[in-house]
Amino acid sequence: MASYDFTWKIMMLGDAAVGKTSLTIRYISGFFLEDLKLTIGVDFYSKTTNFNEKKVKLQIWDFGGEERFRFLLHQYCKGANAAFFLYDITNRLSLDHLPDWTQIIREHAGDIPIMLIGSKVDLQEFRAVSRDEGILAAKKYNLSSFIELSSKTGQNVEKAFDVITEILFERYKPNNDEENSSTNST
Fold first, then answer.
1. Number of structural domains, the chain?
2. pLDDT tens across 30-71, in order?
3. Do the domain assignments include residue 105?
4. CATH of the domain at 153
5. Which of 64, 102, 159, 178 is 20 to 30 A from residue 82's alpha carbon, by CA?
């Protein structure tokens, strides 16, 4: 049986077709799949990684972005340690829904770190949301971090997960190792 120093639940949130599943699969497998279907409800993935000489299991909960699944979200927020909110840099409306999503997260998961992610930077020529607008949105809604990435090319995919893992280490790492087991989430 595998043992982990930390197990963290990370929610993948945002409107439909912003690239949550593509990002998750790219991170888990290293591959980009062109023709993914929309997530129905929620999909669950996990990846074990090493960070600061600790074994970390990331449980990634990919939540379907369609409005008809939104009623399920509050249940899946329970026990979450962090969240990614993705928007598509070519679709301004996908960023406009940020306040709705963050309100639900904070109401049902508490004050967890939320990272704002501008996806699909490989489609630079169709950009509708500037990088500066993304940075300003992250500041306005008091989010933990901001990054732009491309699941297609792999640009900044690993970095996004490294940043959130580092934020989680800073937030949850107690002063001594004996307390570590009590900070794990399942």
1. 1
2. 888 776 555 555 678 899 999 989 999 999 988 775 565 555
3. yes
4. 3.40.50.300
5. 178
